[in-house]
Amino acid sequence: MTSPEKPTIALDHTEFEVLSSIRSLAPQFNVPPKRAEAYGVWVVCYRRYCKVHDRPWLWMSSVSDFMDFLDTRSEVSESERNRALDGIMFYLADVRRAEDEQNEKKKMKRSRVPASTRSLFGQLLLRCDIQLTQAMQLRATDVKLGESTIVVQNRETNETQVIEVPASTRSGLKKHLDRLRERTDLDDPYLFAHRGLEDEQEEEQEEPDPERTTQLATLIMQGFDEERDGDE
């Protein structure tokens, strides 16, 4: 019995570069090879989505639109959607910054941010009125769990902005704070960019299946091509 052919799709030069960057820089961020492959596939899928819908792919509003789109796809499980968001945020927040630092010949420090926090980081950016650079500067004491708020401080102007934490992220934020305080002796560590954790062991996650992820994302991208062809 002949097995059905696996879905395939041709990649352009930029997409090859994206995959290559994620693979080469993943070890610096403690991202295992299988997870890096899954991340790369979802980043390419996200970029295709933006091309078809004429969206700027480096904007958080486009990430939000793509995640809303994945929510409508019943074949994409919740864990796979989280992995897609993890991958996109890994590329936008970590890989691109690391590439910039390499281009400027700066020494790249090893990040010890647990990969399990990336979805939380992405959710805050998507659901809260906060910029990427502001989120990277948040400290543990900026989070007021009792009031369900985050205080964003501009340390240059001494101005502050109070942001309400959505109910969907409160539980995950509390768990992250508890884990962060267990792993460091610092009084006020960075919320997402802390580099001094003693325990580098990540929270257990479902092991990704790169082949399955590739097939799933490829089917979605083939749908993008059909949608684009239908508009022509």
Question: Please, could you describe this protein's structure?
Answer:
InterPro entries: Integrase_recombinase_N (IPR010998). Keywords: DNA-binding. GO terms for molecular function: DNA binding. Residues 192-213 are annotated as: Disordered. By secondary structure, the chain is mainly alpha-helical. The protein has one domain. Helices cover 54% and strands 6% of the residues. It contains 8 helices and 3 strands. Strand 2 and strand 3 (159-164) form a beta hairpin. Helix 3 packs antiparallel against helix 4. Residues 105-116 and 194-204 have low confidence and may be disordered.
Largest sheet, strands/sense/barrel: 3 strands, antiparallel
What is the overall pLDDT average? 76
Name the structural class.
Answer: mainly alpha
Helix content: 40-55%
Strand content: 5-15%
| Neighbour order of strands in the largest sheet | 1-2-3
Distance separating the two termini = 39 Å
Shape: globular
Tally of structural domains: 1
Q: Counting H and I runs of at least 4 residues, what is the number of helices?
A: 8
Radius of gyration: 19 Å
Q: Are there runs of 5+ residues with pLDDT below 50, and where?
A: 105-116, 194-204
Could you state the order of secondary-structure elements as H and E? Answer: HHHHHHEEEHH
Total strands: the figure is 3
InterPro entries: Integrase_recombinase_N (IPR010998)
Keywords: DNA-binding
GO molecular function: DNA binding
